[in-house]
Design a protein that fits this description.
Blueprint lengths: L25 H10 L37 E4 L4 E3 L5 E8 L5 E6 L2 E3 L7 E7 L5 E7 L8 E9 L2 E11 L1 E5 L5 E4 L4 E4 L2 E4 L3 E6 L2 E2 L36 E3 L4 E4 L9 E8 L5 E11 L3 E2 L14 E9 L5 E6 L2 E2 L7 E4 L3 E6 L8 E8 L4 E8 L3 E7 L4 E4 L4 E3 L2 E5 L3 E8 L4 E4 H5 L3 E3 L5 E3 L8 E8 L6 E10 L8 E7 L4 E8 L5 E6 L2 E2 L7 E8 L2 E8 L9 E8 L2 E12 L6 E8 L4 E6 L8 E8 L9 E6 L5 E6 L7 E9 L11 E4 L10 E7 L6 E6 L12 E8 L6 H4 L1 E6 L7 E5 L7 E10 L2 E2 L6 E4 L10 E9 L2 E7 L10 E10 L5 E5 L3 E4 L7 E10 L2 E2 L6 E4 L11 E5 L5 E5 L11 E8 L7 E6 L11 E5 L8 E8 L11 E3 L5 E5 L4 E6 ...
Amino acid sequence: MDVTWKLLFTSLVLSLTLAADEIQDTHNRNLKGNLFNKRPISNIERKNNAYTKFNVRNIYKGTRSRPIRSLNMMISHFSETTVTPGVDVSLQCMVNGPHPARFVWERDGIVISSNTDSRYAIGQTMTAEGGVVTQLNISHTRVDDGGHFSCVAHHGEVTISHHDRVNVYGPPYIRTLPPFKAQSGQSVTLRCPYYGYPVREILWEYKGKEITPDAVQTNRYKRFVKNTALSIEIFGRKPKLRVKRDATVTNDGILTIHKVSKSDSGASYACVVRSPSGEMAKRSFELQVVEAPQLEEILLASDLQEGQIVQIHCNLKSGDSPVYYSWLKDGKKIPTHLKIVERSLEVFSVLIIKNVSLEHCGTYTCVAANHVAKVNRTVNLYIKVAPKWSEEPQNTSLLLGRNGHISCSANGYPQPQTHWLKKDVVSDSWRPVLEVAGGGVLSLSNGSLIFDSVALSDAGLYTCHVENGVGEALSKTIWISVNKPVTFDIAARNLTAKLGQHITIECQAKGDDPIRVMWTRNGKPINPLTQRVKISEVKTDDGVTNILELLQTETSDGALYQCRAGNPFGADVFNVHLTILEPPLPPSDLSVDSIKSRSVKLSWRDMTRSLAQYYTLQITSSQRMSWSTARTINVTRLDEIRHGIEIEDLQPATSYSARVAGGNQADLSPYSTPVRFSTTEEAPSSPPLGVQLEQTDSPGELRAKWIPPPADTHNGLILGYRLRAVPQLSGIQDTQEASDKIIKTSSLYSKQETVITGLLKGVRYAVSIAAFNSAGNGPFSIPLFQDTREGAPEEGPTSVECGGVTSTALRVSWQPIPPHKQAGALIGYTVLYAAQGRQWQNATSPVTELRLQGLHKYANYTVKVAGFSNYGTGPYSFPIVCSTLQDVPDAPAEIKLLSQSSAVLLVSWKKPKQPNGRLLHYTVYCKPTSSNDGPQVFRADTEPNSDAYERTQTMELKGLYEGRQYDVWVTASTAVGEGPESKRVTNTPSQRVVAGVASLGGEVTVAVRNSLLLECKSVGSPPPRTVWYHNQNIITHHPRFTRNRDDSLLIKSIDQALGGNYTCLAKNLYGSDSVVYTVRVLPLPDPPSLRATPYKDSIVVEWDEIRITNDSMAYGISYNLTWREGDGPWQEAWPVARETRLPGVQQHALSGLKCGTKYSVRVTATDSVGTSVPAHVDVTTLGGAPISPPSTDWLWSNATHIYIQLSGWDDGGCDVTRWEVEYRPLGSNIWHRAENRAPMDLNLGWGYIDTHYQAPQLRSIPASYAVGSLSPANWYELRVTAMNDAGTASTVYTYATKTTDGEEIGPPSDFLDLNMMVIICSSILLVICVLAFICILFKRHRQNYSSQYRHSIAEEVKSRNESVASHSEHKERYAHTPRIYTSPVHPRKPSKNEMFEISPYAEFALGFRTFDHVENQDLPSRLPGRPRFDTETSFQTRSESDDSDSTSKATVSGMPRRHCRTPHHR
């Protein structure tokens, strides 16, 4: 089955169909209208063999089309299909839109359904997305099932369609169709209804002739498609497009005839279809041209009157029959209740209205239609009607101040016009109402008269006049009256009366009579017959005045009184809120909410029933305490239970008392209980006075003196002063080198003095001083200027650069020291330089550049630069390393020539003592001694060497003549060039090779504990035998010596005992030779002598430079300093690089340490040999733990807080880092942690940081500590703990809060009174005496019975004393022997034979087993020195030292090893 699917582009087809009652011969018209479309195809878009038609047709030609609502969209459809007969075909379309659509399937313009053929099945379903899907299933297709299929979706007047072909293989055939009708003057499109496949061409013939284009004819003949290249090629052949007449033929078999006329009616057009095999089908179709109907213009008379007979004629001018007529009124069918009669014939139609009225007026449309078109004519019918009342005006009564409305309307044609007139009382004439009434009256177009707010002037006679020019006008005169309802000028008022006062309440009601008035209290009517109430009424011009009188008011009379008045026109209410005033209650709970330096917030509680309207607050100083001169403040009462006020303009650090009272119109309440408070401190408002500034004897210091600010500007307790020193340097910011210093004051009013240290030397400073308290810093004084003394430079040069100039010279340059760091007049610069492992050398220069001469060739030099003045040398710059340039090397140090065979000589040599650069190669020269020719040249590359000494390099000279003497010499070369010759050596090649050693000896230096390899390369024939000697002793088997197969000697872990001469002797039949090595073993360096100087937060460590001998000068010494805090981990002081220090005394400062803390410092010396034993010292930084004041002078309190001035604590030299305060009521056992309620202050220090004088980071350190939430008049215990790096100080103080009146309370308790203590002690002593007397009497009574018992035990006591004496002698005998540690005595269960257990501390002798000694055997000679058998002392001794365990080893060695010591369990 060959099925070809092609992509189709969908479009919308818009079609407005005719009314159902106007369509006749539905089957024929559908057949013709769909197959032979008389409307032109407005647009054909060819894409992938598919096209879409857009057809829009209006119901009435020439009329405005109605707006089309949103269309559904066809989102899925079938494509062209080609099948063979017998195959099932399924076609599907899906439309998505707001409403479901109705589908119709067509084939070649003919509607098909399930009844068309039993093989056809049509279905329609809904999708989940709201779309509608229709399917056409054709089973067992036949050839005649092929054709042009259409899927048409109808939704009201909107249609959407899709067209495509279904091709079934078979011979071509054309279906029969009836004649089709077309409108004259319009274009006609005819699709050939053929089936069968394949098709080669489709032709149209007219009168037996094929329709072809005629070039002679006019431009009416044209092709339908613009591009003939778009024609479809079928089986390799192009279809023929031959056009004749005014027609167009497409390759799809569509014939378009342009503008048919009446003369074309009856013409026959034949469609010819040919297949590729030559089969042909032909069918003719008749064209009938029909003239569209034309109507004459409808005319009506212009003077029609109501009640006349009216005929509306619609006459046909031209058009083919049959013609059908229909009438519409206002675009709709004519209603039957109008009783309009319609009469129609073939050529006209008429409407008859026998009794025309106003409801017949409107637009009438005559519609005429035949088979091809529909036309219409429209006429407007209007008649003149005299006005008639539809709503006649009547006499009306309006309410004063309200809105008013009067209607006056009439019907008629033309539309009647309404006019309102009012009779003017003054002129007695009728005038337009808008002129008389003004802006408050509005006349609407419908005749209504609107009053916005009725006034008394609106009353009077009004006339409504209606006319439209037809018949007589209408007129009606009415009377409008204005009535006044009861109103009050004000809706409510508040009234206040004192208790017991006579009061009158007036109620003035305005309005028309009759007016009735009623009084209520809290919603209940008032009975005028009761006592103390009187009601009276007085008539006025505009109403009545009702008076309510209350005699002797009481508290219960305070209520809401309402005067209710009304008349027939309305009612109103007048409210009176009566308040009976009585003296208010005094406010309660007066408290202090917050306190500042110059203000305080007070609040108090007041109930609503107190009736206070305002409050009077008084505040006075607690020192004067005079309420008569107190400051008075009035406060308005708010609708809140708790009231507050902020009082300003107070003095800092001053005690005040405040009280409050409530008041109203009646009286003032009593004052509340006063509260006492003290304002907080404020920063001092004045700078110190009499500031003086002078130099000291030390550079970088200034002495400052001043007098404290005036006492009235302290604003609190002066805690200290802040000094600010700013250097006067150009180009440097004030804050970069500024220094701050904080000092505490010991006296508030005496003269102050301090020394400012750590300043720049030789620099002018501006010094200003400010006092501070716990609230902050005060203003600074006017700066004073003073120069510091000069000194050594404070900073080293920067950007030091060094480079080689020659092989013996270096150029050193640097940037000068900044002027403010020179500390005075700078004389010049000192340059220290030293080669690696050599002594430092010094050179000076007055400028920033120096050339160093006479240096070693190709050597590394370490260079430092420092400035110096008359006061000394400043710090050195960071050392840099540079090297001199290369030069030609010296001659090789030693050379030796040996005969190796009859034609080979072996030459050996050593590296030059001064290479003067990196050696590249050696050149060996060899020439016969007796020859004058040039020597032979041999090149030998340098060999890498990592041994402790320079190895011998050898080279074989081959191709020589036996018995001929040769001279040999060697040179070395660097990048600069070739060096001088070595000494010349001579030898002769021979068959008899005497034993010889090619290795060259000499002095060898090696570090202790390293390995050393000594070479012994020998020659000889026969091969020689080698023997090694150490100091003339033959080396045999030794664990430290290893002899290798190449006769070299390896010495492992060498020490100084293995130093000396090492000789390798080689010997054969013809002779012997030897090489001697002198080995020097270098020891480890000695530990340096260490000293440490402690400071507050740093330690300066010094040690002496280790003296080195001349033999070890080639090895540089560096130092490693490590330190730790207490028992913490060790840390390196300079972990990045261990710097080689200057000769003499070495120094390093450990900064950033904790104050008053123990530190351990270790220094080791390291050279090329190794690292020395560390030198150790323990040192403690300066400072100690804080010291608490012994008394409570630094504490003060109020009713709820206890304040602690922390400046009373001595920090012991270390800054306090943390404060903890705990409190508890006196006699309680539970401590409570207290939070600081006092403001924080900034504790500023200064120091020398990173070579700059900078202010350190700010830390929030409290200047005072406030313990809050305490109870008034109670004693408390306060435990104040101050902590710093050195330790902790904790002290308990007993202090009391004051009363709410600010008074102090008495001692903690009367129980501890001195008189009470005497009475208690006397009573206790008396009881003791009585008990002692009773005991004496009891003992004397028992003496008579105990005498016999004492005699019986006397002998037993005597024998026991002897035993104890012998045991004492035994103890004295071993009193000075070592102690014996017994194993612990473990408790065990008692047995039947044991009555008791002997205590280990018993003083009598018993036989017992200790360690491995047999019972009663003599003890060993070494016994413990103490008689007590415990082990606590031993364990304490073992823990005394962490670095040595000699004590524990000695103790353990004195005891048997099979036993373990454990402490007793007591």
